[in-house]
Amino acid sequence: PQIPTLTTLYHLNQLSPSPTPHPGATSRYNDKISLIRTDITRLAVDSIVNAANTSLLGGGGVDGAIHRAAGPQLLEECRGLNGCDTGNAKITDAHQLPSRKVIHAVGPVYHIQKAKGKHTSLLQSCYTQSLDLASQHDCKSIAFSALSTGVYGYPSDEAAEVAIAAVKGWLEADEERAGTMERIIFCSFMEKDERAYERHIPQFFPPA
Ligand code: AR6
């Protein structure tokens, strides 16, 4: 697929990792959930979530962009992780990226997992495992790429619904833990993904 040109519609060069987002740090929706369309490698948040593969040794798409921006030390660190199962996630430092941590989540390949009826639960667990890791590593902010919606072929609309529902479920499961996660960002790159989030976020997080 063609690499999209980055639009500047909701573009942010920096997103403050502090509890109070700096002016313009898009609080679309509410004080906890944000939607941004930008290159995730530019976000200065506590953690960004990479759409990795089971090898954790890099690839194309957002994975390639993250490895390029983080520098070769990220690959070095990933080599020590022994890969990661589909539906799970592992955490590393962010090296030369402006974020503090990178969470490498392995989303389902849509057509393979749909045939087994596992696509939804595997995508959902990527989101909850990533949030667990972020929380265990004292991350107060997390930015998710639209896992599986590129090469792995997960339809954007379905994926956005699963992602948002998973985040909501995680927040509701443990109020104390939820309180420590100050900002959860859905970072889309292509318009189709952004539109999908726009359709579904208000269903799960009604505007105040
Ligand atoms: N910032 C934010 N989002 C991005 C960026 C970026 N710089 N670049 C692409 N996206 P994909 P997958 C979006 O294909 O479907 C890799 O080779 C993109 O528009 O990166 O989970 C891995 O190594 C899409 O919405 O990941 C795996 O082998 C989303 O990121 C495989 O691809 C995910 O698209 C994983 O496939």
TrEMBL record:
Annotated protein name in UniProt: Macro domain-containing protein
Macro domain location: 20-205
UniProt organism field: Neohortaea acidophila
